[in-house]
Each structure stands twice: as structure tokens, then as C-alpha cells.
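ugh ok so i messed up the first submission bc i forgot one of the chains. this is the corrected input, ALL of the components this time, i swear. 778 residues overall. if the numbers dont match what u have on ur side tell me asap before i send this to the collaborators (the ones from the other lab, u know who)
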Amino acid sequence: MKISYNWRYTFIGFIFALVGILIIGQMIRLQIALEPEDYLSPKTMGEPEQAASRRGLIVDRNGKLLAGNVTSYRVTVSVLDLKRMAASYKYADIEEINQIFEVAIDVFEIADEETLELLRSSPYPDRDSIPVAQFTTKEKVERFLDHIEIIRQDWPEPNEDNSEGEDDTEPPLVELVDCQPIVGIYCEPRFTRVYPENFLASNVLGFVARSDNRGHLGVESEHDATLRGDDRTVKALWDPYKADQAPYPNHGSSLVLTIDSVLQAEVEDILDSSLAENGSQAGTIIVMDPQTGDIYAMASAPRADVNEYWREEYAHIINNVDNVFNYAIKAYEPGSVSKVLTMAAALDAGVVDPDTVFLDTGSFSIGGITIRNWDGRAWGPQTMIECLEHSLNVCLAWVGSQLGAEQLYTYFQDFGFGQSTGVGLANESPGIVKNYLSSDWHKSELGTNSFGQGIEITPIQMMKAVSAVANGGEMVNPRIVQAVIDHGDYYKAPITSAGYPITQETAQTLTNMLMQSIKGESYKAALVPGYSVAGKTGTGEIFVPGEGYTSNLTNASFIGWGPVDDPHFMIYVWFNKPTSSIWGSLVAAPVFRQVAERVILRLDIPPDNVRLALQEDT
Amino acid sequence: MESIIQAYSNTPRRKQLTVLGGFFLCLLVLAVLLISYLIVSSHVVSVGRDLQNKKNEIDKLEYGNVSLRGKIASLTTLAEIERQASEQGFRPATPDEVLFVVVSGYTRSIQIPTNSHEEPQNSALQAALDVNRPAYHKTLLEWLGQELVVFSDIFEGYEP
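and heres the new structure output, hopefully the right one now
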């Protein structure tokens, strides 16, 4: 009996021993199975961990990258950690810390007085970390670390066991810089905005400031909320049960612009060479599809390399005093190009028709002022076509007076004057058009406004308004953003109509008038062989405070489109204060042709005879 | 307390053993539960660790991808392509050098932006969650069995 009990005790004891061995075995297995690198760095555990989001890309209509991101580094040196290590391992004395900072000054080209003072304030305050570089490249960080290696030759390796041994794994294509082996030196990768094409379309793009990581000017500012991602910060987890709470950043959405970067580059080249030729201080050329409102190119000069927006030489552009960052959305007195719209209003209201004859005596009095032609001449009997061809101020002031203030300003409002177009760019000027009922409006302005003086309109507003003429009466909203890509989903921005300020008949009549007038002697330089185009020049005098309007300083412009029966491009040219000639017909009209020729090739628009043959074929 | 000890000592030996056996049985059940808990815990811990490691890997890859994309962009700038093209003897065409020919029945295809389909963010998340470490999906006995097989295979000269 006793023997039987002993056997049972032994059995139970064996079971318990087995259970104990299993538990211990399981624990040992875990220790063996987990590789050392599977453990998280003790530095990050329990500390706030930021999952940095990536700003959305900006690409052109063909997928060409215009604004992207690169990996840059923030490098910090912890004097406290270096001193702690010095106490423990007897290395990194003050002299060596001094050497580290001198290397940092040299490699990272630190010029900021405050930082220099801090880095040379030996024996150094026990600050947790001193930033020595904020947005530096991988190459510079590696150079810095190479120098540190020389300084710390005699230091013991903090992780000697891990540093030895051959690594058979294939190195990754792009490796992040790892500062971890050096105690006291920390590198933190971060996303930084970059514009690979430098100056190209910089006036459209705007830039992201490093100080606040926000978009400024252009598309970057206007669509900042879309492009900007959502950084997430949580405490790095000790508890693996909560691993699913690890932060995943919400990356920003990407934008597809309507811009064609090849055409943009060509147009910018034309603009820059034209500015050099005609001596203008600034200018813009815009190419738009009048049927969809897509902006193919929007060149503006002067431009800045937005990768280095902080440079002194760009200060006057970047500070954006008076919207000079992008002349396409800057309001100015356009002069005679706006005669197109005065004539459109008069034709649409039935006040005149193309054959209406006006007797030009060389002057026209309205509201107590006398309006004269650009050459001071009396042109005698002129049809409305001739009025446009010779760009007669007197004639258009008369047309305006016949139309009356109420009708003229109602049409101007319908054309969108005084309102932003919503093209998708920050700081777009709404322009200035006075209310004829307000006390500061004077009757003389009915005359001057009729030929584009005394009102301020942006080039993009003018394109929107004139699209009604080119597009059979329907005005389109210009747009710079074609689509948004959000987490792999492609959302197309709709083409939106801005209404019908004039009838189809008016649009057709005026187009024919402008087609005829452009063939006149003054505008011949704008004609594009093989293609039917319509257009109008403009020479607006510039108001100088204290001197008034002066004929020496002008805004020379041209607006034109083609092919007139099926318009695929509309081009606006504006030069500010040209010196070679003050006239739009001499300065802007030839540039229209130059641009049109490049647009035709880029957009593959066949000449009229081929196009019409194709239409007949289909 | 004394009365309990008294009562227990007066109980027949068989009854004492029954109580003792019951106690040990409870202890055994508790031990089994503890083992189960330990297995589940180790599994969760390992999956959690994997998740954290994968996330770190995703972050590194993201930085790497961004750098590569930046490199591609800088190597394919319009200025660079234009330079290469002119080196190879290309130049922009002039309007009079372009000949348009009417081809019956031909319609032009519509261009679509080339990089309009980015990797969806949630696929990265999905990849991170798809952790499969065999060691933690097995019981201790299964693992021991597998290790023994591997060990014996080495001696047999077998190479998988």
C-alpha cells in the first residue's frame, strides 16, 4: 500500500516537473528564437515617436514631376551624452567635443552667428542636444561621420559585438544614414520639399517654407491642405500588445496640373529672350485651351529658384509685394485688349454691328475729359472692324457711351471682372472695376474704361472673359489643377462653364471681325502661316503717382487664339514697361506668333487645310 | 484553525489523499492554463514585435523610395534631357519641317498621366499586418519535433 502511494506521489511530482520544464523551455525558446535585431532600440522605446507624413507630389499633365520630396537629415550632437560616456568610458574629452563641433561647422557650412557661438562655447552647456544641421544631405552627414571616426579612433565601440562579423545580405539600393553606433551623435531623417526643375513653373508652384512646413504662394499655398499630410506622434511602445497602435502617417494627396512642362519650358525661354530684346522689366505669357480652361503654360518673369527661396536675390519676388510672384494673376490696366470686350458687349446689346460707321474726328469728350487716339490722328469714317484694326480709343469711347454705364458694367461683371477666377493659385488679384453707382465713379471713366484704361484686370481674367468670344459665347473657368490623386484614387477636376455672357452669334461675329482686323498692317506680325487666328493688341499707359499717365511707360499686351473655327489654344502676352518700343503691336504681337508656333507643334494641331480635310474625311 | 487541523488529522487517510489529489489537480489545471497563457502571450509578443519592426522597415523604405524618386527626377529634368538630346544631334523642329498627312480612319489616342496610380497607403498597412513567423505559430512539441528533424537531417547529409 505504501509502495503504491509512493508511486502516485512520484507520478504527480513528475507531471509537475514536466510542466515546469515546459514553461522554462518555452521561455528559453523565446530567448533563442528572437534575434538581437528584433528588439527595438532602447533609445526609442517609451519615447515619443513621430511618423512623418510625405507631402503630396505635383506633376504636370504628362506625369512629369514638378515638386517632390527628398530625404534630408537633422543632425544633433548631445553634449550631455558625450560627457556621460566620457565619465563611463573615459573618452570624449572637451578637446574632442570641440573638434566634433569644428568639423560640424566645416562640413555643414554653418554661418549663423548664434549657432557658431553656441558650438564654440567650450566647455559647453549640458544641453540634451545641439542641432548642427537642419536639412542636410546624406553625403554631408556621411562626411561628418567619417571625420568623427578619425576623432574617435581610440574610443571603445559601444556595440562592439554587433559591429563585427560579415554581413551576407545584399545592401539596399538606398540606405539611410545610421548614426546609432556613435553615442551622442543623432541623425533623424525627414522629408524635404524639392523642385527638380528649379526655375521651371516656379511662379505656378510656389514653395514650401522649411520654417513652418507650409505651402506659400502658387499651387503649394492654394492646395496646402490637400498636399500636406498628417504627421502622427505616439509614444514608442514597450507593450507589444499595443503594437497595432503604432502611428501610420497619412501622406498628402498628389496633384496633376494642366501644365505641359515641355511647353512651359519653351514658353519661358521665349519670354526670357523677349524680355532681353524689348527691355521689359517683367512679363507673362499664358497658354490656355479656351474650350476646357486648361492652362498649358503660365510663364512669368522674373522667376525664382524655389529650392532656394530664402536667397537675397529672390527677396523682392518671394515677398510678393503687389503680386509680382506671378504676373499672370496680377492686375494691371490692360489698355486696348479690353476693347474686345467692349465691342462684344456693344454687339451683343445691339448698339452697333460690324458695318456701323463712326466718324472719327480725333477726339471725343465725355464727362469733362477729351479722349484722343493713340497717334492723336483723326481717322475719319471707320467701320467697327476698322475701329478694332486701328485700335481707336475715340471710337471705342463712343461705343461705350452708346452702350451706357449700366449695360457696359453689367457686361463687365458678367465677364468676371472684379472677381477672382479661382484658377487654383494663391494670391490671385480680383482686379479693380469701379461700381458706376458709387460716389468715386466719374462719367469720364465710362469712356476710359471702354478702351482699357482706369480699370485693372489680371491676364487670367482677360483670358477667361475672352474665352466667351473664342468659344461660341460660353465662358470657361480657367484651371491649373487637372486631378487629385488621393491614396491611389484618381479624382478628375471637372471642366466648369462660367456662363454665357454673350450669344453665340455675337461671339461668331466678333471673332470674324478680329480675324479680319488682325490681317491689317498693324498686326501682321501675329499671323501664323497656315492657321486662322483672331486677336487684339493692347498698349496701356501706366499711371505714375505725381506725373499721371505717361506715354513713355506702357503695358504692351496681345491676346489671340486659333484655329478660330475650333479653337485649341488661346495665348496672352503681357510685357511691363518695354523700352525697345512701347506698342503692343510691335512688342507683343510677334511673341504671340512665336508661342503659337511652338504650341501648334506641341499640341499636334494640323494646319487649317489638313484639319478641314480630316473633318471631311470623318 | 486548530479545529480544522484536528478534523483533518482525524479524517481517514483515504479522504486526506482525495483532498490532496483534488488540490493537486486544481494546481495542474492552473499550470495548464498558465502554459496556454504563456504560449498565447509569446505569440502576441512576437507578432507585436514583428509589427513594430515591419513598421520601421516601411518607414525606411518610404525614405528610400523618396530618395530614389528624387534621383530619377534630377536625372530626367528637361534641361538634362535637352542636353542629352542636343549631344546626340537632335534639335527642336520648326513649323516648316513638320508635315501633316491625312490618314483615313486614324484617330489620335488620348494621353493619360503616367504616374497616376500610386501605391495605396493601406496596402503598406496590410503588408505590415501580414506577419507570419512559423516559430510562434507552433506548440513547443511541434517546434522541438521540427528542430529534431533538422538536426537529424544534417547528420544524414541532407540539404534542403
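quick check: Confidence is low (pLDDT under 50) at residues 36-44, 160-167 of chain A. that seems consistent at least. The radius of gyration of chain A is 35 Å.
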